[in-house]
Amino acid sequence: MEFPQQQKPAEGKITYPPGVKEITDKISNDEVVKRLKMVVKTFMDMDQDSEDEKQQYLALALHLASEFFLRNPNKDVRLLVACCLADIFRIYAPEAPYTSHDKLKDIFLFITRQLKGLEDTKSPQFNRYFYLLENLAWVKSYNICFELEDCNEIFIQLFKTLFSVINTSHNQKVQMHMLDLMSSIITEGDGVTQELLDSILINLIPAHKNLNKQAYDLARVLLKRTVQAIETCIAYFFNQVLVLGKSSVSDLSEHVFDLIQELFAIDPHLLVSVMPQLEFKLKSNDGEERLAVVRLLAKLFGARDSELANQNRPLWQCFLGRFNDIHVPVRLECVKFASHCLMNHPDLAKDLTEYLKVRSHDPEEAIRHDVIVTIINAGKKDLNLVNDQLLGFVRERTLDKRWRVRKEAMMGLAQLYKKYCLHHEAGKESAQKISWIKDKLLHIYYQNSIDDKALNEMWKCQNMLRGLVRELLDLHKLPPSEANNTAMFGKLLTITKNLPDPGKAQDFMKKFNQVLAEDEKLRAQLEQLISPTCSCKQAEVCVREITRKLTFPKQPANPFLEMVKFLLERIAPVHIDSEAISALVKLLNKSIEGTADDEEEGVTPDTAIRSGLELLKVLSFTHPTSFHSAETYESLLQCLKMEDDKVAEAAIQIFRNTGQKIETELPQIRSTLIPILHQKAKRGTPHQAKQAVHCIHAIFHNKEVQLAQIFEPLSRSLNADVPEQLITPLVALGHISMLAPDQFASPMKSIVANFIVKDLLMNDRSVGNRNGKLWSTDEEVSPEVLAKVQAIKLLVRWLLGMKNNQSKSANSTLRLLSAMLVSEGDLTEQKKISKSDMSRLRLAAGSAILKLAQEPCYHEIITPEQFQLCEQLLIKFFLDECYQVRQIFAQKLHLALAKLLLPLEYLAVFALCAKDPVKERRAHARQCLLKNISVRREYIKQNPMAQGQSMPAFQCHAFWHASLHFCHDTNGASVFLRCLWFMLEVLMTKNENNSHAFLRKMVENIKQTKDAQAPDDPKTNEKLYVVCDVALFVITNKSTACHLESPKDPVLPTKFFTPPDKDFINDKDYLSSEARTFLLTGKPKPNPVLGTVNKPLSVTGRRPYTKSAPLEAGSNLSSNSEPCSPAGSSEATETGASENDENPAIAATEAGKKPDRPFWKSPQEPSSETGQASGRKWDAGAPPSSTENSVTCQTTAAPPPAVNKPRRGRPPKSLAGGGASSAEKEGGGAGRGRKRAVPASDGTGTPTVEPITIKIPKQQDTDAKRSAPQRQMDLQR
């Protein structure tokens, strides 16, 4: 479309305003500016009705659009020309004097460029720039460009310019004119192109929003003003991206969800057509896509003033459906949203309740936890936001199977009770609504679950904190010194770990410690607060005084004071004192006398008495001084006379914990108590006898006389022919010898030699039950075996009492216990003892060795050979055929190590857990190992001087040494690799203090030494170096940080390794290329024929699917196992055999089979350990059948013979067993969907090696079979 033609003046005649000379390129810039200012003034004064002037200055208007002006380098000239042009468009409107489209485009692009001058409001020319903007906006001059074909380029440049120049220094008028200019283009045009829309929307993206808040505000107001015109364009954009998936339509496609959130906040009407598209995306098959939409809608529905849920019910219902999404993160996001929704939209609580109920029983712990957090947060804001049903969900979760969930539920309910019932923040009605919380928590606080007993833990924590504060106050009484400051810092560090947010609490505790140092009265108040005699009322006064001194009126919000209050709450006796104990004892008396209303509470009197005593027993540990009264002890004496064994045992323990002053202050109680304790020590239950002996030792001054009166008759009455009557005397004698070794060492030695060993342990008087079980319940164990178990414990207690490493008794006992383990529990080897009884005796012997090893004096006398034997005996437990033996022993080992009672090298024994055939127990062992390492690392932080002895990496010393016994053949090599990876994978989880470099350095140092037990044996040392090379190879391929400088040079123990010889440099590589391939991929170099046989049939682009046989129900790899780790060869063992049947994981190698070639040697290398027979030798953890996702490898270089095609589908019943069948020998598969290669034979008698089965995770199985280079990435991830 052509513009209307203006009448052209005669050529060459340009009329200038009066006083203005001709403007040409031959004059200076200053003169040009001077003349242009007069021209600008003339055009400013003209209006649209001045027809004569319009015609007079038409030539000048055309001249001002010439190249000389539009491309002038002087910015003042360009600004004046732009102002003239803007006025020309105003004067000549609606018919512009310029006829050429190209010229119009050049003019408007020129004017747009001049608008950049608006950025600097302090510029002298800013007023002219403002006039230019105002003129363009008022006249809507840019609307002329609608007739141009490429007007979009002009508009985009204009919008980008205005959004870039807007800033905080602009006033409201500037923003208003910009809005007028841009909104006229949007509302009066035919539509908004995608590029123009992008120039607006990009300012809403969070990154741009943070950079230029004014541009964001400008875009927000512009969109709100042009909703009707721009909504269609926005809908088209989102339709292209969300529905059609055309992300290329805009560079903003990846920010669609951010844009939707911002647009919804600006005006929901902008998204009227977009919301149905989100409902479509909520049903996407892609879990991550659904998660992104759920996150977006959670913000839209949960916004404070949002009415979306009521306005778009279909979308709301579709969103609620995502609470049941199969994708865990989606469900988690929905639950998190519920908190904001409950607080901002109480009217939607009814819709959310049913969905939260389902999620409160979600199988995922994190989701159940967040349901509680959601409800509690809403309740803390306003109790009316949560209905009784929602609180009921939290109440149910106090019994959750997971401690984290239970803890959150209990803490949440306690916070609500504190806020609304104790502080009365919402009136009596709210307090009445949740009055049930107190009773509920008190019932839950004391449960008999193994890991709960939260009340016990609370009191233990309180007692520990009180002790730490007491020690801190004692340090303040000492004169200042560097050592004193260091000790104080250690106490403060320990205290802060028991406070919320230890990082911040540490700074506050330092400040509090400084205040204590300066204020003696404050220290006195704190000492009274933690005094054992402080009552609850006194504690309240002390806390009030301390907080008053620390309160600063000018600081209403004082986080320091809040932290101090929290500490005082934890150490103050707020609910237990002498008065409380007395009240509890009176309630106990009522139950004993039968006057209590126990049955109305739903419990029997016996249960009430037992539970009451259990509660008092716990309190006796933490508040012993509160029990010191005649009335309390009289009630406990009545309990001692009751027939209930548990009640009497608890009463004795309470006397033991609290009766230190009975002898001096309560003689009547003493005279009654002594005969009862004697009777319990001689004829009570084993537990009563133990507690009675300890009670006598703890509270009486003449304990030697009292213990002698028990010892002598018991020692004379020992009779091995009546084992039922032996158990209690053995327990009592054992504890007496431990508590008073000087008095009873000599008579006990005679009892041990003549009765315990010769008469009891070395004789089997009865024949055990031949039921074939490997374990039986406590009730089914024979009395003779129970007596022998107590006899073993007596030996240990006797030695622990003596603590004398000069005596030969310790060595003799170690030999006896070792013999019992070697004989698998049947010390006499007469085959009279049943297998279950042998398991009990093995466990007792192993536990005894573990107990002795915790005593330093006995650990010192253990020679390297004895330690190796002891280690082998411990290893037997991890390979024991009875899983209860393995489980109980591993737990005892873990607890001793976690308490830092055992030497560090015993931690290496956990590596043998890689052999356990059950995945869950391997995972549990891994957690124990992680816990132990964590404890030691924490200990190092608090005790830097102990770093050398407590660094977890040092545990590998014993492991390398023990590894010599695993790598003598292919079978041992596979075991070693699994154990090595089990240990290293845990050690290398974190690279704290550059521990990876320390590990590498330690192994390198070991390689430069020799085995201390056989320094001159080349075979033994070669095995040691092979172990080192394998470890180095795994470490360097797993860690990129191991090549850094080690933080400390490892010092190797001389009992394992010889001192390094300066003349000895061991730089030999002991690993063949085949071994390296095996370590990287879990199998040797690929063989073309085997590869063809084992090649899976699959469709391009789709992973092959293989249905698992029932025997493959469990996985043998933990979730954290390295793909190439050789830890998964016992899958079939895991579920193919019952727990305590003959365990195939422990199956011995067939007699007469010679060991195969070691895996680190190449096929051409001769091996002295290789025989002529090609006998099979399977890994101790793997039956001869392969499993899904397992690959078998051939370690001989000879080509294999032709292989028969394996049978497809389910194997015959005759082949379904765990043993090797003829089909297996012929190369047939042993399980459904599985193939395995046949061992190669060259027909010349060359020995072949049975494949080592290595487990590869499913997701990498297909890729692992494609090419060796891909497999070599496994360890390098």
From TrEMBL:
Key word Repeat present: yes
Localization terms from the record: Nucleus
Source organism (scientific name): Scleropages formosus
Keywords assigned by UniProt, alphabetized: Cell cycle, Cell division, Mitosis, Nucleus, Repeat
GO cellular component: chromatin; nucleus
GO BP term (any one): cell division
Residue stretches of biased makeup (Polar residues): 1115-1138, 1164-1173, 1184-1197
Region span, Disordered: 1083-1277
Listed name of the protein: PDS5 cohesin associated factor A
Pfam families hit by this protein: PDS5
Primary location recorded for the protein, binned into one broad class: nucleus
Gene3D superfamilies the UniProt entry points to: Leucine-rich Repeat Variant (1.25.10.10)
CDD domains: PDS5
PANTHER family, per the entry: ANDROGEN INDUCED INHIBITOR OF PROLIFERATION AS3 / PDS5-RELATED, SISTER CHROMATID COHESION PROTEIN PDS5 HOMOLOG A
InterPro entries reported in the protein's UniProt record: ARM-like, ARM-type_fold, Pds5
